[in-house]
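Chapter summary example.
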Amino acid sequence: MANFIKWLGAGLGFAVGGPIGSVLGYVVGNFIEGFTASDVERAKAYRATSANTQSGDFEISLLLLSAVVIKADGNIDQRELSYVRLHFINMYGEQRANHAFKLFKGFIKNNNVSTRQVCLQIRQNMTHATRLQLLHFLFGIAKADGAVNEAEVNSIKTVAGYLYINQYDFESIKAMFYDSSESAYKILEINKSATNEEVKKAYRKMVKKYHPDKLQHLGEEHVKGAEDKFKQVQKAYEQIQKERGQF
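The structure predicted for these 247 residues follows.
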């Protein structure tokens, strides 16, 4: 229990109050065996010793929004649950992932989460680059069972709206999970009629927007996660160059 409390304490940055704090308190008190209100207070005390509360904030937010998307189509798919668990193991290691997944299962069981209120709290406390990374991960979950269905897309789109992620950024990240002739252009937020110079300009813009260094404040584990978006931008640019006989 002590290790779990320490882990949870690292995730109680901006999540101490507001709707996220309420959901967190409800879940640990009702769905995690042996966890009490006094344990939450102990977790808050451990928060002061955390080296990177921003990483913990991202972790808690990721778990909450992942639960929202997984439940969007009314079917909790084991492949999606496994995707979340594997991703957390790759980022944080098995012990920390086990703690996270225990909390995640509580979020899955809780049907009283206000997506809007949770997103508003995240929006107020996280950078735009961090919110884009959250969105990218949500699409990864949706694709874990082989295809992104309409209910999942609509759920992620709702989350994106609440997080103040505009339509262009939403479509750019969404296109990274679809194989089509249009995807490369959508990733760069342009259309096929763009000139070669406009393609280059769009590429430079997207490189800056999705550069992994923008997530340095979250820790190395999240910088590695951001590299996938960055590689997708490079791949899209190279594909367009090849189509136009420039590569």
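To summarize the output: Confidence is low (pLDDT under 50) at residues 45-53.
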